[in-house]
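Progress against Task 2.4 (sequence-to-structure conversion) is shown through the following example record, which the project officer requested during the mid-term review.
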Amino acid sequence: MNTLSVWELAYCAAVIFLAYGLRGSTGFGAVIGMPLLAMVLPLKVLVPVWTLLGFASSAAILGRERRFVAVDAFIAFIPWCLLGIALGLYVFTSFDSRMLAHGLGVLIILYAFVAMWNAMRPPERALKLPPGTAAVSGTVSGMVGAIFGTMGSMFFVIFLDTRKLPKAQFRATMSAMLMLLSTVRGAGYYAVGEFTTESWLMFAAAFPAMLAGIYAGDRIQLRLNEVTFRRVACATLLLCGLTLLWK
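Structure tokens generated for the chain above:
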């Protein structure tokens, strides 16, 4: 961190604020900050720090909204995600990660357009997704998490979107899922010694910008009705899909 210039430090603070502003307003979306920060920070240090930020941001949201967590959706998601992690570790090691990222990016963008179409029309004119969409998205989220670490959260959105949760439950349940994922991933990083002194110092430096972003995003979402919230969530999902094409 001592090697960063003042402008690079300001850039990192701005990216973290904007990324977690999206997280605070929609419940997800902070993932777009990872490729932007990777332009000035080594991934070896960034990934553990991002895991700590993910845990802390989830705790900040759940501290007030834990009562809104859709427990049935949370429990239903876990088996599919674990299956996906197992499949990802077994199968995806033989594929080119860049090709997979681009393919998943296209899939996310297509879904974002479908979700936006539905959000802008009456329920009776909405496009109906296949019954197995929730199971597939849960499994794919585990696969993607096993390969890319932070990218699986985009498929959490698809899983929860199939259940048509109101925004309070959507944000809280998403945060509970991300908190679980950050805890499991963090335990793995701790076991292999990835949480270095530099990682903790960078987390401490990034924490105020993350907290400010969460606060600003939370203030924004309070002014959004259900329809506008879904449209903002779709736009964020589209932006996340574009980051995968960039990866």
